[in-house]
Amino acid sequence: MMADRYASDLALVVVAQITQTIGYSCSLSAPLELLQDILQKFVQEFARDMHGHMEHGKWYRQTNGTDHLSKITKNHE
């Protein structure tokens, strides 16, 4: 799918920018691809958890959405 390919390419750019910012430079692509896979899996799991929390419409509408975001981010620390 195009969306999967786009997400994969975007994750690679994000990983490259982060590693470049911290001073990592290497000609090997395997470490970057590993970090790319880890980032993609984390984002997918985070989105799945967020979706599950937001599915509870009444629960979400009665409170501030950021409260639920903080609960999810605590689970991923």
Automatic annotation (TrEMBL):
Transmembrane segments: none
InterPro entries, A to Z: BTP, Histone-fold
One biological process term in Gene Ontology: positive regulation of transcription by RNA polymerase II
Highest taxon of the lineage: Eukaryota
Protein's UniProt keywords contain Hydrolase: no
Domain Bromodomain associated: residue ranges: 4-77
GO cellular component: transcription factor TFIID complex
Compartment(s) where it occurs, according to its Swiss-Prot or TrEMBL record: Nucleus
PANTHER family referenced in this protein's UniProt entry, alphabetically: TRANSCRIPTION INITIATION FACTOR TFIID SUBUNIT 3 (PTHR46452)
Name this protein carries in UniProt: Bip2
Organism field: Drosophila simulans
Gene: Dsim\bip2
